[in-house]
């Protein structure tokens, strides 16, 4: 029996609805979210981040939830979202260069989530989370009665078969029910498939035919557990559809000078070497680049710990433990830290420092697919915000009514 199921009551973006949006956690600056909602009030972000909607900035998240529920009802009433019963939804993402990714919108059993080697389950969650964000997601779906952002799951055993089946399905199902274009120029298309059709049964079997690794949406998957949802909204995708990009960090204020920072890093055992030229992301694991403004640019080799699992010596873990914990005395969830995904290039991070909006940029090589797989097979956890998978599923294209 598969752990992947049809959506009993879906709400699908309509061609003119304009509900599609980047996920709420894809932004380095809250002001970007406000600007998107202002330009398009139908954006799913107006529901998922109601405290950042124009006119509500500064309102506590919990106090803005009634407005989120009203906006969602308004979109449904206006026809921006269309009701559909008992469907799976085929998904195709086509980049400007013609690269194509595929996925299947569906519901997945929450009791299949496994976070350790001794916890059974086919859904592997592999990354530490911020509990405050989890509580926000629970409060949101309890207030609005819907899920708008999916968990992105990577099918590990039958990914190639699922990829071929979704490519064939999207090529033969005719015109997409709706499409949307993201800021990177990728076209996102959806095709609802009746749960009673043989195609739906075949796709569900392939999608649930092996271990499913959480590639994006660790907070959303834990929220489903905390909120006691029997199933959660997911897009099951394939290894051939995704890539891992860098996940960097900005620190907004420093309690020390640049010279003191170097001394603090060296006190942890790090080797700090000055760098010239433009700010870049390291090509491979083993060193990080640190930028604190003109004349303060370094390559830093952080010392690994002995006698610990390899996951604890990944660059992101060393940054969390040595740079944040020891050198700067910051907790990972401190508001002074912004976690910046791969959609923002190195020059953007350097520009934030040069403009005075951040004090420090920390650039980290992306986690390799081999390291990602090894961590998951060992049922270990990656450090928080260490894998930025692309392309990401677009929020607001398919919602589920709870």
Task: Give an overview of the whole structure.
The structure is a single chain. This protein has 11 helices and 21 strands. The protein is α+β, with helices and mostly antiparallel strands and 402 residues long. The protein folds into 2 domains: 255 residues, Alpha-Beta Complex (Conserved hypothetical protein from pyrococcus furiosus pfu- 392566-001, ParB domain), CATH 3.90.1530; 118 residues, no CATH class. Strands 1, 2, 3, 4, 5, 6, 7, 8, 9, 10, 11, 12 and 21 form a 13-stranded mixed sheet that branches. A 6-stranded antiparallel sheet has the order 15-17-16-19-14-18, sandwiched between helices. A hairpin with a 5-residue loop joins strand 3 and strand 4. Helix 4 packs across helix 7. It is globular, with a radius of gyration of 21 Å. The protein starts with a strand and ends with a strand. The model has no long low-confidence stretch (mean pLDDT 95).
What can be said about this structure in brief?
The protein is an alpha+beta fold and 402 residues long. It has helices spanning 30-39, 45-48, 61-78, 131-144, 159-172, 198-207, 218-226, 258-267, 315-327, 346-354, 369-377; strands at 4-5, 7-13, 81-94, 100-109, 113-114, 123-124, 146-147, 151-155, 178-181, 187-194, 212-216, 231-237, 243-245, 248-251, 271-274, 288-291, 297-301, 337-340, 360-364, 388-390, 398-401.
């Amino acid at each position: 029996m598969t752990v992947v199921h049809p959506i009993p009551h879906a709400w699908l973006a309509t061609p003119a609805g304009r509900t599609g949006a980047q996920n709420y956690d894809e932004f380095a600056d809250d002001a970007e979210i406000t600007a998107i909602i202002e330009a398009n009030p139908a954006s799913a972000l107006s529901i998922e981040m109601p405290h950042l909607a124009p006119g509500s900035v500064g309102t506590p998240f919990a106090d803005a939830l009634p407005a989120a529920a009203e906006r969602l009802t308004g979109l449904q009433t206006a026809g921006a979202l269309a009701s559909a019963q008992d469907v799976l939804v085929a998904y195709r993402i086509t980049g400007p260069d013609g690269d194509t990714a595929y996925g299947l919108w569906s519901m997945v059993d929450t009791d299949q989530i496994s976070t350790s080697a001794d916890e059974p389950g086919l859904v592997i969650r592999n990354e530490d989370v911020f509990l405050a964000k989890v509580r926000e997601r629970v409060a949101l779906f309890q207030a609005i009665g819907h899920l708008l952002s999916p968990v992105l799951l990577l099918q590990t055993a039958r990914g190639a078969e699922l990829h071929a089946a979704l490519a064939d399905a999207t090529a033969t199902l005719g015109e997409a029910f709706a499409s949307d274009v993201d800021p990177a120029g990728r076209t996102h298309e959806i095709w609802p498939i009746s749960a009673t059709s043989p195609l739906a049964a075949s796709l569900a079997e392939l999608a649930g035919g092996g271990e499913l690794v959480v590639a994006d949406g660790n907070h959303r998957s834990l929220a489903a557990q905390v909120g006691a949802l029997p199933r959660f909204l997911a897009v099951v995708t394939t290894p051939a559809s995704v890539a891992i990009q860098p996940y960097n960090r900005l620190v907004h204020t420093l309690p020390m000078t640049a010279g003191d920072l170097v001394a603090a890093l060296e006190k942890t055992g790090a080797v700090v070497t000055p760098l010239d030229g433009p700010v870049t992301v390291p090509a491979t694991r083993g060193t990080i680049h640190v930028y604190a403004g003109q004349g303060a640019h370094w390559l830093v080799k952080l010392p690994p710990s002995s006698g610990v699992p390899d996951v604890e010596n990944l660059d992101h873990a060393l940054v969390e433990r040595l740079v944040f914990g020891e050198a700067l005395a910051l907790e990972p969830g401190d508001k002074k830290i912004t976690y910046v995904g791969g959609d923002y290039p190195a020059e953007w991070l350097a520009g934030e420092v040069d403009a005075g909006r951040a004090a420090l940029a920390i650039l980290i090589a992306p986690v390799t697919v081999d390291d990602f797989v090894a961590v998951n097979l060992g049922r270990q956890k990656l450090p928080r915000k260490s894998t930025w998978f692309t392309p990401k599923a677009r929020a607001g294209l398919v919602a589920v009514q709870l």
